[in-house]
């Protein structure tokens, strides 16, 4: 009979242990948390923690993460502590909120039917539904059954921030009622019952009334039906709900037609590069060489920490930015006010295989697409931040990650991958924009059956690298996708991978419908210096020997400038644009003519440029008015060494490294090159060159550059003359963009953990 007593005994012991932990947690809470949340957790300067609702995640793991790591963008700091103490605090919160007490016996299947009948028009669940009310996917992790029951029975009793009902009247006499997604002293952003988002300045309003009455009708479901709905919300698998047919919102729809003709709406910044061609330029011309000296900072948005590398998207007055750890925000582009925030709890990714950052969104329809450090592709509703789908691109545990902004085409989202330093192989994927279904995959390493597999000795292609870690460009005229590839692996030791190592350190021309390769061009065959070829493939039309040609131009990391025919991949011309000592030039096919003693050795060989290259991922900018391409340049040299190491996928596999020559340092420049030839036209020196600061040509004859030492710089686009500069006070690892709202032109750039915007008085 004793075995029958075992389970109750264990449960009793667990109850005693939980109570003990709760008592310990109470002492910790009073010591650490009560100054903000009150002695009993009922709120003070901080929110009430006894209501059973936690906006930033209510699972044990999520609560522990909020306690020990803090919550970015809020006043909640991190409290590093032993795991046992964090669990004790969570036990106290559970006890204080009663979140483990109630169980609901309803039928989740019946609850799904009721939810579809009464709730789905305002609330999203599993990617389906409206956005006027909160997304209820995963609500069981954020709220107790008791709190959910009360919210349904009495919706106005405790209204969630971002969904309080307001009624405003404009000075023109227009009344707007809806949910206040954000409000501050000077602005308010309202989502009305038709899901139209209104971005309002209070100076334009005659009245703002907080009605304290929920837009949700009370007691739409009661009794047993209420239990069924609660069972659905807490026990139904959201992934089992098929996504409905996609119909983008009438007031927010970034169509493929708009993306193809982005140049026609310079007030917006619709893609990572500004448009498909990668020119990274703006036709806005309110800011000129004559008035740029009066430019002043307008507003600053703080990300809350980390090194921000985002390039914002701007769509009709809304700005969308991503943070270093895949969090994201929608902002009012006039004021910087946050409208919604998306936070992604990241697992422990293989940081030794990647950089911990995110560089931006893609937009299509009324959705935003985010590629993540744990190698997922996430679709968000642009007006609410709600998750539509979240699909795995590849298992991040293998060492893969994604850091770049995806590229949106006609019904497709294109993403690449990091894979260069951990004995992995790169690829480019296309996904259905509506469902997240993968449509095709093209590897950047020649696969079995491809004759170019012979460019890899032995089995070295199995660990070949070829990361595809920067956003590609797209040729509307020829329907061709261009995606650049990175270094082979190991980076600095080529002994085991004799051959050209196709298709690494190259640009691939792909059919976006199938992923089939139309042509390829390799910049650095058998690269042994980590000179990824992932610099921007800029698409221009230009005159070559008296004939108009469709061109692809790029200033490569290996210090050579290339001009290719983008319809065929034919090499047209090339020349060094920075100091280099590894090749005596390019032959008539564009292949480098290697100089002796340039490969790394165990003893070391001295080569220019260093591994970060003469140029890198910071955006170049093409100005059609001047015919110049503006490039951030580094003038460096390094000693390259090699070591032997067996490949182990997921582990570091660089095969050596480089040491920058300290006598030279890392000087840089903003350099203007004639786009069709690469000939230097002017040069503006920078104290410290950067691999990540970019440039922006504008219609006002001003090119904006940036420097690692924190300066945003305005130069005359024709002469390179300094016109203005602003010290942001932090390191810049990003490229400036320009946009306009209500006819007013802005410049925006990220510096360390903030985004700063500028405009004229």
Characterization of this structure:
With 761 residues, this protein is of the alpha+beta class. It has three domains: 2-97, Cytochrome c-like domain (Cytochrome Bc1 Complex, Chain D, domain 2, Orthogonal Bundle), CATH 1.10.760; 108-240, SH3 type barrels, CATH 2.30.30.100; 256-759, Methanol Dehydrogenase, Chain A (8 Propeller). It contains eight helices and 45 strands. Strands 6-5-4-3-7 form a five-stranded antiparallel sheet, with no helix packed on it. A five-stranded mixed sheet has the order 8-39-40-41-42, with no helix packed on it. A four-stranded antiparallel sheet has the order 9-45-44-43, with no helix packed on it. The longest helix is centred in the first third of the chain and has 31 residues, at 2-32. The radius of gyration is 28 Å and the shape is globular. Residues 1-19 have low confidence and may be disordered.
Strand order of the largest sheet: 6-5-4-3-7
Q: CA-to-CA gap between the ends?
A: 85 Å
Low-confidence stretches: 1-19
What is the CATH topology assignment of the largest domain?
Methanol Dehydrogenase, Chain A
Radius of gyration: 28 Å
Which CATH architecture of the largest domain would you pick? 8 Propeller
Q: Kindly report the oligomeric state of this protein.
A: single chain
Count of domains: 3
CATH superfamily of the largest domain: Quinoprotein alcohol dehydrogenase-like superfamily
What is the typical, i.e. mean, pLDDT?
92
Query: Helicity range of the residues?
Result: 10-25%
Question: What is the global morphology?
Answer: globular
How many β-strand runs? Answer: 45
Summing up helix and strand content along with how strands pair, one would put the structural category as alpha+beta
């Amino acid at each position: 009979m004793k075995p029958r007593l075992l389970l109750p005994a264990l449960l009793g012991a667990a109850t005693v242990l939980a109570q003990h932990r709760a008592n310990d947690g109470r002492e910790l809470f009073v010591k650490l948390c009560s100054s903000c949340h009150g002695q009993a957790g009922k709120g003070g300067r901080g929110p009430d923690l006894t209501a059973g609702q936690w906006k930033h995640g209510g699972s044990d793991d999520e609560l522990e993460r909020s306690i020990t790591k803090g919550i970015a963008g809020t006043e909640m700091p991190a409290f590093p502590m032993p795991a046992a103490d964090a669990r004790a605090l969570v036990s106290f919160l559970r006890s204080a909120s009663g979140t483990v007490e109630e169980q609901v016996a309803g039928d989740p299947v019946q609850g799904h039917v009721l939810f579809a009948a009464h709730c789905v028009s305002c609330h999203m669940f599993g990617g389906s539904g409206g956005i006027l009310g909160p997304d209820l996917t995963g609500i069981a992790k954020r709220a107790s059954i008791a709190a959910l029951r009360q919210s349904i029975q009495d919706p106005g009793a405790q209204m969630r921030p971002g969904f309080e009902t307001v009624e405003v009247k404009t000075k023109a006499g227009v009344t707007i009622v809806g949910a206040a997604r954000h409000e501050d002293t000077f602005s308010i952003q309202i989502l009305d019952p038709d899901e139209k988002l209104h971005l309002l300045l209070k100076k334009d309003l005659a009245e703002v009334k907080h009605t304290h009455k929920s837009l949700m009708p009370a007691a739409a479901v009661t009794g047993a039906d209420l239990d069924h709905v609660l069972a659905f919300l807490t026990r139904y698998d959201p992934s089992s709900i098929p996504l409905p047919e996609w119909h983008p919102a009438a007031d927010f729809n970034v169509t493929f037609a708009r993306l193809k003709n982005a140049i026609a709406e310079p007030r917006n910044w619709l893609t990572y590069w500004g448009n498909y061609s990668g020119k990274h330029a703006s036709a806005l011309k309110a800011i000129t060489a004559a008035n740029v000296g009066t430019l002043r900072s307008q507003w600053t948005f703080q990300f809350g920490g980390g090194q921000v590398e985002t390039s914002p998207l701007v769509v009709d007055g809304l700005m969308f930015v991503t943070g270093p750890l895949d969090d994201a925000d929608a902002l009012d582009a006039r004021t910087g006010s946050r409208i919604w925030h998306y936070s992604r709890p990241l697992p422990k990714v293989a940081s030794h295989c990647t950089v911990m950052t995110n560089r931006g969104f893609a937009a299509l329809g009324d959705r935003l697409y985010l590629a993540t450090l744990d190698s997922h592709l996430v679709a968000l509703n642009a007006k609410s931040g709600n998750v539509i789908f979240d699909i795995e691109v590849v298992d991040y545990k293998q060492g893969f990650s994604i850091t770049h902004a995806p590229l949106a085409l006609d019904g497709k989202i294109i993403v690449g991958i990091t894979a260069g330093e951990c004995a992995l192989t790169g690829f480019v994927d296309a996904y259905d924009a509506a469902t997240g279904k993968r449509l095709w995959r093209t590897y950047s390493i020649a696969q079995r059956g491809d004759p170019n597999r012979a460019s890899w000795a032995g089995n070295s292609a199995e660990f070949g690298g070829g990361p595809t870690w920067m956003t590609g460009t797209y040729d509307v005229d020829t329907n061709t996708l261009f995606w650049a590839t990175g270094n082979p692996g190991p980076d600095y030791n080529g002994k085991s991978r004799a051959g050209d190592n196709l298709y690494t350190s190259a640009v691939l021309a792909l059919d976006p419908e199938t992923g089939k390769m139309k042509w390829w061009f390799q910049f650095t065959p058998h690269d042994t210096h980590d000179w990824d070829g992932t610099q921007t493939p800029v698409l221009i039309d230009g005159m070559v020997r008296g004939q108009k040609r469709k061109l692809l131009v790029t200033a490569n990391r290996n210090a050579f400038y290339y001009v290719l025919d983008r319809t065929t991949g034919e090499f047209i011309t090339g020349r060094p644009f920075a100091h280099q000592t590894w090749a005596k030039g390019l032959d008539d096919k564009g292949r480098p003519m290697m100089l002796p003693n340039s490969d790394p050795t165990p003893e070391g060989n001295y080569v220019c440029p260093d591994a970060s290259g003469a140029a890198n991922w910071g955006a170049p900018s093409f100005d059609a008015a001047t015919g110049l391409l503006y490039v951030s340049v580094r003038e460096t040299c390094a000693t390259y060494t090699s070591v032997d190491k067996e490949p182990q996928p997921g582990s570091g596999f660089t095969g050596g490294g480089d040491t920058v020559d300290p006598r030279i340092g890392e000087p840089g420049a903003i350099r203007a090159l004639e786009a069709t030839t690469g000939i230097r036209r002017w040069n503006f020196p920078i104290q410290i060159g950067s691999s990540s600061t970019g440039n922006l040509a504008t219609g006002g004859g001003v090119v904006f550059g940036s420097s690692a030492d924190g300066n945003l710089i305005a130069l005359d686009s024709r002469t390179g003359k300094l016109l203005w500069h602003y010290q942001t006070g932090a390191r810049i690892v990003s490229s400036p963009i320009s946009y306009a709202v209500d006819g007013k032109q802005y410049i925006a750039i990220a510096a360390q953990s903030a985004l700063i915007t500028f405009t004229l008085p």
